[in-house]
Structures are given as C-alpha cells and as structure tokens.
Amino acid sequence: MPLDPPRLAVPGVLLTDLYQLTMLQGYVERDMLDTAVFEFFARQLPACRNFYLAAGLEQALDYLEQLHFAPAELDWLSGLGLFSPVFLDYLAGLRFSGEVQAMAEGTPFFADEPILRITAPLPEAQLVESRLINLLHFQTLIASKAARVVLAAPDKRLVDFGLRRAHGAEAGLLAARAGYLAGFHASATVLAGAQFGIPLAGTMAHSFVQAHLDEAEAFEHFAHSLPQSVVLLIDTYDTEAAAQKVVELAPRLAAAGIRIQGVRLDSGDLGAHARRVRGILDRGGLNGVTVFASGNLDEYLIHRLMVEGAPIDGFGVGTHLDTSSDVPALDCAYKLQEYAGQPRRKRSEGKATWPGRKQVWRRYDDAGHCCGDSLMLEGEAGEGLALIQPVMRQGRRLAPSPSLQAVREYTRRQLDSLPPALRDLEPAPGYPVTVSETLRELAERADRLVGRG
Amino acid sequence: MPLDPPRLAVPGVLLTDLYQLTMLQGYVERDMLDTAVFEFFARQLPACRNFYLAAGLEQALDYLEQLHFAPAELDWLSGLGLFSPVFLDYLAGLRFSGEVQAMAEGTPFFADEPILRITAPLPEAQLVESRLINLLHFQTLIASKAARVVLAAPDKRLVDFGLRRAHGAEAGLLAARAGYLAGFHASATVLAGAQFGIPLAGTMAHSFVQAHLDEAEAFEHFAHSLPQSVVLLIDTYDTEAAAQKVVELAPRLAAAGIRIQGVRLDSGDLGAHARRVRGILDRGGLNGVTVFASGNLDEYLIHRLMVEGAPIDGFGVGTHLDTSSDVPALDCAYKLQEYAGQPRRKRSEGKATWPGRKQVWRRYDDAGHCCGDSLMLEGEAGEGLALIQPVMRQGRRLAPSPSLQAVREYTRRQLDSLPPALRDLEPAPGYPVTVSETLRELAERADRLVGRG
Where is the Nicotinate phosphoribosyltransferase C-terminal domain (chains A, B) (predicted)? Predict the structure, then answer.
C-alpha cells in the first residue's frame, strides 16, 4: 500500500451553523474568553436500542487539530456584512487550543452519560459544536445499529453494502468505519479500504449477468476475470436454476484451477431459497461453496433467518445499516456545563441537563458483566472503571490514536461485557445509572446562580 | 462575494462499490464495450409520501464531468492485487463519454418512473452506479420530505436547522440544498451559503444565554453584537419570564437604533407557549416581533400547530428534515435496461423492472393539475409533456445548469400543479401511471432473449 492512500477531503470550518459565528462575535466583543466546559451526550434510549456504542472520536480529534479559517473562507465571511474586521482578524488566528476528555470508541454508554468533554476558551468550545455533533452523532448512530447486527449473527460474515443509500459521501465512508468498528468484517466501499484499511468485499451486480445473454456464460466469465474471489449472484432470473448452473460450471472452473467461493441470494424468501440452493450445491458436490444473502436485511430479519436455521454463511447489510433506518437520529446534545469556573445548566422543559465536569464510573459483577454506572463529578471517587479519560491537551492528541483494528478488538470485548439482556434484540430492562448526590447539589447551585434555586 | 467561494471537495472515484471495479475488469477483458442504457428510478411510494420530488441531478452531472482516476488512486488500486496492468491502464484513460437524459430537478415523480438515464459504453455506465445512486437518492429523499413541510406551512418562514444530526458533512450540505430547492427559505449551514448561495439564517444557542449569568444581559449583548438580525432564544430557563424581559429590553434597544426582529421557542408545548408569548409581546407593544419555533419539528407537528392557529411565524426544522426520519431511505435502483441494442431486464422476485429507454408523459387537466402519467418507450407518441430530456452528450452538459433560484421557482410551480389530494399530508389515492403496450411487449421480448419467454 502506498504511504499516502486516497482520502476524502476534510470539509472546512464553514461546515457549521451560522449562529456559532454570530455568537462568537458576541463573545469576542465582550472579552468572554474564559474557560468553558461543554459535554456531548445522548438523551433517552429509544425502545429498539439497549445501549449506544461510542464512535467518531477519531474524526472529532482530526477536526479539532485541523481547525482554522483559510483566507478564502474569511474573505467569503467578510462579504456577508455581518462580521467586524476585528472579529475576522480574531478568526484568522483561531486554532483549537483546548483539552478533550472522552470515552474510548467502542464503549457502550447510556442516557445522559457524556462521551466527550471539551474544555477551552468559550469561543473555541462554542464554534466546534455543530461539526462535533455531526461527527459523533453519525458514527455513534451507525455503530450502535451495527452492534445489534453483530450480536444477532455472531458467527456469520457481515459485510457493509450501504454506500448507495447512505446519506452522501461522508456517510457512506464513515458508516463503513462505524460498522467495521462494531464487528462487521468488511465493506464494499472502496474508499473505506483506502482511507481506513477496512477489508473490502464484493460480488457482482445483476447488470453483469444481464449484460450477457447467457447467465452461465456470465458466471464463467466473472470467475476467470476475478479468480481470487468468485462469488456468483444467482437471483437475476431463477435462483434455483442458476444454482444448478453453478454446479455444472464448477468442474470446468476447477480444471482451470479456479474455485467457486460462494453464491449470493438477493431477493425472495431468503431462508427458503438458501435451503434449496444449499441442497442443490451439496448434491452437486459443492459443500464448500458458501451461501451469502443480501437484500433489505436488518438485525431482525437476520435473527429470524438464524432462528429458522437457514443455511446462510454471511450477510450483506446495506440501507438499514448505513441509515440506521429504525432510528435514523439520536436525541443527543453538546451543552455548556461550566463557564469561568461556575456550573451552568439548561432547564428547558424536558431537556434539563446535569451541570459540571462529569465522570462515568462503571462497575462489573463476578462474571465480568457491567452491572451499573455512576454519573459523578470529576474528582469524586467512584467504584469500578472511570470511562472518561484525557485524549487531547493544548489542541494536540496526547498519544497516537489506536488502530481501527485495536478499536474493533476493544469493542468486541466491550460487547462481551454487556449483561445478556442488553445483548438481546428485545428491549431490556433499563441499565442502572445513578447520579451522585454531589452532582445533584451542583445542579441546584447552578439553578440558584441564575436566580431560580 | 468572491469569485471562488469555499466548497466541499468532491470525493474521488474510489467512492464506489468494489464490485463495480471487478465487473469493469470483466467487461474490459471480454471487450464488452458496447452501449449500455441504465435508468435510475424508485419503486413503490411509502404510505407517507404521495409523490417523490426529483433532486440531485446537478451534483450527478458534476460527478460525471469530473470522473477520472488520479495516479494515487490507480496506485492504491494496483496494490490490492485484484487488477491487471492492462485494466489499470484502461482506468487511467477512462472518462465519462456518454449521454444523460433526465427529469428536471424539482419535478414530482412516481413509482417506476425513471428520473435519469445513462447511455454510455458499458464500463462507464456501470462504474458510475454507486455514486449516482448515492447522490440522486439522498437529495430526492430530502426534497420529497421538505416538500411536505412546505405544503403543510405554505405561508411560513422555513429554515433548515439540520446540519448537526445530518449523516455527515455532505448530507448536511446537500440537505440544505434539497430543502431550499423544495421551498425552504434559508439554512443555518454556513457552507450552504458559500457553495450554493442559499440564504443563511440563525439565532442563538442556549449556551450563549448560559454563558451570561443574567438572561436579559445576554439578550442585550447579543442585540448589540448582531443588530442586523436580532432573534432571541427565550426558553433556556422560563419562556414567559424571558418574553417579559424582551418587552423590557425593547425600548432600550430602540433608543440605540436596534429593532428586535423575533423570539425563538425551542421546547415544551410550542403552541401554548406561542400564544402566551404573543400575548406578552403584544401587551408590551411588540406586535412586530415575530415568533419562531423549533425543536423536533416535522410536517405533522407543524400542521397541528397551524390547525390550532398557533401564532407562530416561522419554523426551524432540523433532524426530521435532514434525515427524512420517517422514511430515511427510498427503495430506488439504477438498472441495466438495454445492452448492445437489445432490451434487458431483471426478473428477481418482487424487483422486476421495465426494460428499454423510457419516456414519462404527463397529462394535465383544465385546472392545470397533472392528472395521469404514461410510461412509454422513447419514440412513442404520448400525450402531454415529455419529462425526460437530454442534458449531457459526450460527457459534457448541453447547457449551463439553471440557477438554484430558478430550480426553486420551477419546483414551486410543479408543486402547485399537483392535484390537491397529493398535496395533502394524508395518504392520497394512487396517482395513475399507465404502462404502454409497446413497453409490455418489450418486457416479454427481453424475457425471451434470456430463454424465459
């Protein structure tokens, strides 16, 4: 692999909400440059998620390290007529100089638990809100969905097929990353291989079969063209007839030294087709040829196929993974928790937050399963593991990021540590998260500070 | 505005599925370079969509015009060990040299109606599948959702607030475009202003209020900092108390020549708060101050607020717009319809397609409402307007693209031309789309060609 593989370009600092810039101008004008603490967290879990899986920190840190306004961006902003020359000068010199503390990617978390804290001068901490949420929300969303698929089919080969219906370029790319992190084995998205070293997989499309007048000829042609990876799509016209053609083709290919690795089903009753196709392949002596299924799959359909005992060796999951279709957005937020040494919190109806710098402590039972979390103030002595750890200081990473492979392995152990009920697709009883007395007292103090104690 | 405003970088050609490249190698090896015809269309409408709204053509044409493999991309592909030097040489010279025919952006369409046709040498037409779907699917998805919001609140100011929970960078940017095209008035996403000239809007965040110890001081400070656009967020602590503070602040600001334009509500029962806040403002002589609402809004909630007569002048719509949350993906496809002059179609269960090059004819009644479409073969004489028109030849646009303003205006007229039942949020009776006899005969011929007539 070359040293500098192709990457998706990082979008500039203008990928933000207008109000970040107008608020920043207000802060800068009044010299409100004291240290602010913001935390990113998600609110209540939807019924079809027993846990969230933290993801996206790596891209968030990249963003913070690269944050700056290019001359063309300042020039364009100047043309809006909203910003003063003094403020634009301030932006020209702005870099992210703060601290980040975070939960490791691949850690399960629950409602109200922060997974990232920014401690920085107020304008810096404010400016980064929109893109930090955009990055952390999406990968957490997809990793949380992918983990469910992985838990539903722990012994199956799982491949991300979702690029085409992912929401744009970056969604396709980062969904491949989030899926792989959560335990998927490969992605069809080539750029995900180039940028993240994710193993690539792919079979063939119906158009390849259709472009040939004869289906068997299409299979033979494909096998000769890509002898390393012969997986044949057999549902273009008649699945079982095509499986028979595969059986007839196999000896001719074997004579040429080519082994058929698998067949793919993509429509109809996948369980029924898989059983018939498995029978045809086995009777034809092709016991080693695997059956791979795709086509509108999600964790529920995969679970049903597994329960039925469908002879399927792997699944391609596309749309439902890359859009997290049953929960296409999480109720998450990035909120000011402290400014100039004083706790802050919002009290809007149904959206009140816990103020201050928080730590999440996680306890484990004798079986190694986590059994309860405590949300405490930083510095309070909790029990178990402290999940929020420093990762960036003065705008620079404290250590090189772990490899995606290492994150994936860590995630596997984290999923293993979940209590069995949480690993199930069915809604589990709520995981216990307690809030420390000190934190409750701080919330009252924060309210008194704004005259509502 | 400078001549060259900041833009999101276009992702490279590796944003594709691996199988496109492996199939291409097969085509090139066997000299299967004849003309192929692919069409992009969506299958059945979900119950909560009465029509789709075509969008994304502009980005699709950009992609086709810029398509090429850079040396670093070829180098990386070579390292995979899957591709022959001959094939990599072919890729080095590959450009899109074909034709595109398409429905104009902003045109409503229905199940099985193509909105884009590619006519090109098979490898070119095949390669572009993944990214073309990725681009057309997403903007069509969001424009179709946005149109519902626009139809639910035709006289209200509508602003896209969705960047943070959009699925990544490109989703945030292109959702702003699709929303604006469908009739939204502005977006909070700064890059959408820079790249597409979309009007920007924004108010303030809770953190701005929280960073001040006194809410009224925060309001006054914000107004002085951005006197052009004073919209105050009043739900951080107590909505009605904050509205009273706005009344008290107004004369002081007026003395400084600053007019408060509006207040924003973001939580609780928006209708009830709006009525109380409107009363407080009016009693305080602030009849001209508008009330803007946001917070988990979609077309149904907005419709309910409108029916209740809530005194709200505009809505910020975020997550539900940018993720099309009730339908986060469309069942759409890009399928081979003809190769080397012969019709092709897929017959997979539940996914059979109509072969050949198709035209969509739309008829209108005396009231100017469209009243029925005919799906016909190109060249058949239909009734009404032919919606599929040439836009690219030999890989180059036939004419400069219309401005986004012009597309938005066209879209407004198109939405006006929909029958009233289709403009409603409730499911409408199916819009009549007939399939011509000639097309049905071609489908039979395509089946006979592969021995299944």
Answer: 387-442
d(CA A356, CA A158) in angstroms, rounded, equals: 41
- From edge to edge, which strands make up the β-sheet containing B358-364? B385-386, B358-364, B370-377, B433-435
**What is the C-alpha to C-alpha distance for residues B408 and B414, in angstroms, rounded to an integer?**
10
Alpha helices in B188-298 (DSSP H): 190-196, 206-211, 215-225, 239-255, 270-283
- With tokens 């996403």, the residue in question is B189
Per-residue pLDDT of chain A (453 residues; tens, 9 = 90+): 445 788 988 899 999 999 999 999 999 999 999 999 999 999 999 999 999 999 999 999 999 999 999 999 999 999 999 999 999 999 999 999 999 999 999 999 999 999 999 999 999 999 999 999 999 999 999 999 999 999 999 999 999 999 999 999 999 999 999 999 999 999 999 999 999 999 999 989 999 999 998 999 999 999 999 999 899 999 999 999 999 999 999 999 999 999 999 999 999 999 999 999 999 999 999 999 999 999 999 999 999 999 999 999 999 999 999 999 999 999 999 999 999 999 987 777 777 788 999 999 999 999 999 999 999 999 999 999 999 999 999 999 999 999 999 999 999 999 999 999 999 999 999 899 999 999 999 999 888 877 553
Instruction: Count CB neighbours of B423 within 10 A.
Output: 21
Closest CA to B51 of B439, B420, B434, B323: B420
Tell me, what amino acid is at B280? I
Q: Is B299 on the interface with A (CB under 8 A)?
A: no
| Token pair for B243 | 């509205």
Domains and CATH numbers, chain A: 18-143+327-449 (3.20.140.10), 153-322 (3.20.20.70)
Q: How far is CA B227 from the centre of its chain?
A: 33
A31 in contact with B, Cβ within 8 Å: no
Measured between beta carbons, which residues in chain A are less than 8 angstroms from residue B129? 164, 205, 207
List CB contacts (< 8 A) between B221 and chain A. 26, 30
This model of the complex carries an ipTM of 0.96
Q: How far apart are CA B72 and CA B88, in angstroms?
A: 12
Residue A62 tokens read as 């990249």
Q: How many residues does chain B have?
A: 453
DSSP category for residue B165: G
CB B370 within 8 A of CB B429: no
pTM confidence score: 0.97
Instruction: Return the pLDDT at A344.
Output: 86
Q: Any chain B CB within 8 A of the CB of A145? A: no
Q: Do the strands A262-265 and A231-233 form a parallel or antiparallel pair, or are they unpaired?
A: parallel
Please, which residues have CB within 8 angstroms of residue A441's CB and are 6 or more apart in sequence? none
A80 with B349: Cβ contact below 8 A: no
Q: Which of B26, B224, B268 sits opposite A208 (nearest CB)?
A: B26
Q: Which residues in chain B come in under a pLDDT of 70?
A: 1-3, 451-453
Distance CA A290, CA A305 (A): 16
The angle, 0 to 180 degrees and rounded to 10, between the axes of the packed helices A299-308 and A129-152 is 10
Q: Mark yes or no for CB contact B14/A191 under 8 Å.
A: yes
**In the Cβ-directed half-sphere of B271, how many Cα atoms lie within 13 Å?**
10
Q: Measured between alpha carbons, how far is residue A319 from residues A142, A145, A220 in Å?
A: 11, 12, 30
**Residue among B13, B224, B225 with most chain A CBs within 10 A, to mutate:** B225
Helix (H, G, I), strand (E, B) or coil at A41: strand
Is there a contact between B275 and B245 (Cβ–Cβ < 8 Å)? no
Using CA atoms, how far apart are residues A132 and A20, in angstroms rounded to an integer?
12
Q: Is the distance from CB of B359 to CB of B439 less than 8 angstroms?
A: no
Q: CB count, 10 Å around CB of B289?
A: 24
